[in-house]
Amino acid sequence: MYELCANQGFLDGTSDAPHEVFATNRYGWGVRATACLLPQAFVLEYVGEVVGRREFERRFAVVTQARGHYYFMALQRDLIIDAQFFGNNARFINHSCQPNCVAEVWQKNGIQRVAIVAVKAIEPLEEITFNYRWSPSFQEFTCLSASPKCRHAGLGC
């Protein structure tokens, strides 16, 4: 049964799905597949420094005042992953209102971690995306998707 589990690569520490970071025309950096990825495939783990709500708010204020890029992901209501200085390629995954992946909280050795998982087949050179509003505990971002199905009207679409 374990062999059929979609999170096998995540659980046993094997490599991430084949991907590369690339310069996009609109968003800065992005991540795209370099091979076909199947639905339910583990793509990447979103890693970074885990900070509390108070420290997150301090860092968020500093970054937004400087108008810089930020790489925050809610793990729980009061625990936020900050991938600014300690992270991996997952921090470059862009938002889409029509994403091909989702972020899910998984357990590994009793510790909560965030896995990026494909929700549909992803072709080689297709950008990997997920909806940044997957978690109700972190709502602030500017949507640049320009998607006709954008659910964040007035937030940059």
UniProtKB/TrEMBL annotation:
It holds the Pfam family SET. Coiled coil: none annotated. Gene3D superfamilies: SET domain (2.170.270.10). GO terms for cellular component: chromosome; nucleus. It is found in: Chromosome; Nucleus. SMART domains: SET. One of its GO terms (molecular function) is methyltransferase activity. InterPro entries: SET2_Histone-Lys_MeTrsfase, SET_dom, SET_dom_sf. GO terms for biological process: methylation. Residues 17-133 form the SET domain. The keyword Zinc does not apply. Keywords: Chromosome, Methyltransferase, Nucleus, S-adenosyl-L-methionine, Transferase. PANTHER family: SET DOMAIN PROTEINS (PTHR22884). This is SET domain-containing protein. It comes from Aphanomyces astaci.
